[in-house]
Amino acid sequence: MNHQWYKSTLAKSILIVLEHILLVIVVVSFLWMMSYPALWREALVGEPVKAYEDTTSFNEQLRSCSYEMLNAIGMRELFETDGKYDPQKIVDIQTYYNESKIDNENVSGLAYRLEELVEWGAEWHQNGEESDADTGKNFGDNIIVCKRPDNTYHYYYYKEFQELIASGELKFVMESDGQGGTGESILNDLREGNFYEGNSSSTEFKGLQDAEGKIAYIDCWSYDGTWVEEKYKPMDAESVMELANDNPEWNGRLSEAYQMLRDSIYRINSEVGSYQNLESFYLEGDTNFAYLYVDTDTKRVYSNRKEFKDYSELEKDLDKFRKMGRYVVIMPELADFETNLNDIEVAEWRDEVKYSGNKETGFIYAAGVDTSYPIKDAFYSESRLYEKYGSSAKEIVWLGIAAGVMAVFIIIWLTIVAGRSDRDDELHLNAFDRWKTELAAGCVVAVWIIPILLFGTSVSYVSSKVYDAYGSVVTYSAGFGLANQTISYIVVGGIGAAYTCVMFLTGYLSLVRRIKAGELWKNSILRCVCGFVKEIFLNMHAVWKAVVIFGLFVLIHWLVLISSSAIWVIIMLAAEFAAFVYLVKQAIGKHRINMGVDKIAKGEVDYKIPVKGLGDDQRIIAEKINSIGEGLDAALEKSMKSERLKTDLITNVSHDIKTPLTSIINYVELLKQENFEDPKIRRYIEVLEAKSQRLKTLTEDVVEASKVSSGNITLEYMNINLVEMIQQTSGEFEEKFTARNLKEVMSLPDREVIIRADGRRLWRVLANIYNNAAKYAMEGTRVYADLYTTGTTAIFSLKNISDQPLNISADELTERFIRGDISRSTEGSGLGLSIAKTLTEMQGGKFDLYLDGDLFRVTITFPIGTGQN
Amino acid sequence: MSKILVCDDDREIVEAIDIYLSQEGYQVLKAYDGEEALKVLKSEKVDLLVIDVMMPRLDGIRATLKIREENNMPIIILSAKSEDADKILGLNVGADDYVTKPFNPLELVARVKSQLRRYTQLGSTVDHTSQAVYEVGGLSINDDLKEVTVDGEPVKLTPIEYNILLLLMKNQGKVFSIDQIYESIWNEDAIGVDNTVAVHIRHIREKIEINPKEPRYLKVVWGVGYKIEKL
Fold first, then answer.
1. What is the per-residue DSSP string for B177-188?
2. Does ipTM come in above 0.85?
3. What's the CATH architecture for B133-228?
4. Would you say the pTM of this structure is higher than 0.80?
5. Which of B164, B222, B224 to mutate to test the interface with A (most CBs of A within 10 A)?
6. What CATH superfamily classification does B3-121 receive?
């Protein structure tokens, strides 16, 4: 084993096994502690006590018993007469409602027997209440409230009231102006409950009068207060309503009376219920718990043991308590507090007795537990448990904590070495790690959760019982047989923990390895789906793309409209923001591409569109344009270079030709001076002279043509009067024309025609055109030179009749070195028209040739200059 | 008897020029490169130099520069290089005239004569007592005598030609359009004027210029008019 032992398979296996054991320990100890609240409470505070009665749990248990007993004592006071439950006890509703007292006498007039109220409540409890608390729409008859002139009230049921009206014992006194309704309509309104206190008297009627015509009531309206269906009559009355009519105490307080009655019925029902329950607990012989509550004023004694019931032996009884295993004696003064319990808040105990018991002063309360536990009650079982496990509680807690810490440490260790091996530095993935991420996660969760759910239902019953034991009230009753259940629960918990640990480690370590290998996202189904969608999208036609995006956008907005939930609004805003960003980006991209295309089109072929930040589609376009630009640039560069090379070559060659040509011309000239008589020799010399002159022109024209076509000349623009220019040119060629008997017919405008051009180059153009005419026009014909303007252009044309037939197209004539076939034998290089055309175009003009039979026409067109210098 | 040094690496050309100049009565010295020309100039007094540009060892331009350090006799450059830039360079380094190959031998002779006359008569023809004499370069017009001379040689002009030349000579450097010339010579409105003036101008050029196609004095400003170059 080398220094990387901590990565080895063996180490990992041991760690994994350890992790399982530790986790099981943690879970088991935790569950165990949870099962016995007494234990873990003690475990957390210093040295654990030996006996249960010394624990806080014991104190709590005793205190909760005391508390319940005190409540029961309070209720005994209420419901008992001379220490016995008294169903005939008279309950005055008002007193009970206001002071929670049952004094066995009818003070207010509204009173029932206790028995009746309990029955009533039980019935409600079973069948549901038949009353109406708030609405005023009574279940039975509508109630009409009538107000007497002396501000007392009388309640009628509607039927009763209607009969009185019908028999004429009561009569509505109508408003004098007759605006109000009839008696019938008023009755209707009353039945429907449309009249409320105060709203009818002014509009409908003034009041009611009796048979004798005396005013009985000044107003009446529909009752809208609480109503209760009366199952039992109040004492000394037929009904609550009768009370409210006849008893001055209750007159006009019908709603209040019903309200009090209703509340009292509910309260008595629940209080009698708990009274009876408590009475049945803690009976002598059922519990080790004993109490004694003495009202020192009335000298009444409450206790669950007969031996303490004699008030005269109070001191003796208290001594008996003091001899019990654990006891408290509580009197109103804190100074009189006696106990042998550990660590209790005496003031709290005292206050509890003071406020839960019957009185705040003049009481003595004693409670105790026989710690020899002669009776096998909850105290006994808790004590047994503590005896059994109490001593080891602390160790178990610490074991659990230590195991937890170890488990965390091992998890960290495993996290670090996951996927590593002691043999190399590579990351190793197992077969499971190569599963798709979501699939693996789903598998782990599914395999884990299915048994947990299956067993969970059967276990939960056990666990619920255990957890009930943790609560206060049921602890005592559920205490029996607890140990067995707990153990089974702990075993199940332990198995569950081990199983969970297996699944967790499988999933977790695989996750760690995936993250380390960067496979978490790369190997996920989601990524596949995303990739697939992206692929579809990339290969989608642009139109469909737009349709899909727009459809989604609209869909989101419709969903917002329909659902109007916040999440969709957020998604909508996000979508809108995305759309905004997208549109702006598109606009920027479009602008950039436009600008780039513009620049390249204008000749800046080395311009590059910046592609950074462009969307996929636009980036592709921009890159293509850039490469077109590059191609153009390269091609242009190449052609420029080759043109320049050609020009240089031609220039150099022409220099080399010129030197020998000079000699030829010079010696031909010398020969001519010799004055040969022989006509043959003279003719030869003439040919030599002509050809040498032609060679001279040719070399000059070739150089110029190549310079012009390669753009190797600079133009000096100036304002030129085309009229003057043509006159000048015409003057220069006058002699040549005359020599061939050509007559020039000029037609020029009277005013100046100014264009922007290079004078010398334009002269060259015109000279070439004229020269052409002078050379190739048929002798004795006319040559027409016309200049005219149309709006923004100046058009010059020269027409002549060709001497020789022209069998070629106009285009061919301007091609370099091409001339009409026959004219090859005459002087000239054949470059004249080509040079003229190129020069014209360089200066922004247009050069056209037109051939029609022997008619030969050259037209050059220039934009008329703006007159600037 | 003027001594003329002809310098060209092409011996046949030198030979031909020698023949033409000798016919005119000049004494011709020969050199076949720049170095040689400088050597000859050191030993002999030369009145005019005709020199080629493209020569081995020392080319015409550099030779001209060296010669101009000491001598001020006329130099005519004779070159196959016919670009504007070449001509400008040659004239700027101190040459008096620039003739491109292939040249017309008679033109060359004319130019040599012209240069020599100006060179030798310089200072001697300044005794103009009359104000009616206008001069530019070797061209002179005496309005009192109605006489036009080029390098001292009288030239015969028709009255219209004379008047046009006089107008231009009086306003040297100024460009006159055809219409302006017509109006001042014929004293008529220039309406529907054809190429009359241009033809006259060409005739004048043929009489006063050595090479009418490359005029020294009467220049065409294309599309604008004509002028006498102010030298």
1. -HHHHHHHHH-S
2. no
3. Orthogonal Bundle (1.10)
4. no
5. B222
6. Response regulator (3.40.50.2300)
